[in-house]
Amino acid sequence: MSGGAMSSVVANVGGQSQSPHKVFVYGSLMAEDVCRVLLNRVPQSSPALLNGHHRYSIKERVYPAILPVENKTVAGKVLLGITDPELHILDEFEGAVPEYERSTVEVSLMDTSESLLVQAYVWSNKNDPNLYGDWDFEEWKQLHMKDFVKMIKMTSGFMEKLELPEAKPTVATDE
Question: Nearest-CA neighbor of 148 among 56, 59, 38, 74?
Answer without folding.
Answer: 38
